[in-house]
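Before going further, learn to read the protein records used in this course. The integers have meaning only within a learned vocabulary of local backbone shapes. To see the layout at work, look at the sequence and tokens printed below.
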Amino acid sequence: MQEVKIRDEFIKLGQAMKLSGFSESGVDAKIAIEEGKVKVNGETETRRGRKLRGGDTVSFDGREFVVKSPENMAEV
């Protein structure tokens, strides 16, 4: 599973989608999220501003990534 490492307490879903390479632009991320194609921790998420924290998983289009924050980088 792919990892998205963050330095802050959280990252917004739309930003994480771009950082992970799951979408090429903010517009692409916005459309996918608003259309209900993105799941966070197994549940459909339609808010691109959803705050993701360490340990959250995001799935889209058959791919998945987990958010790693400084607090949970030692866990694996």
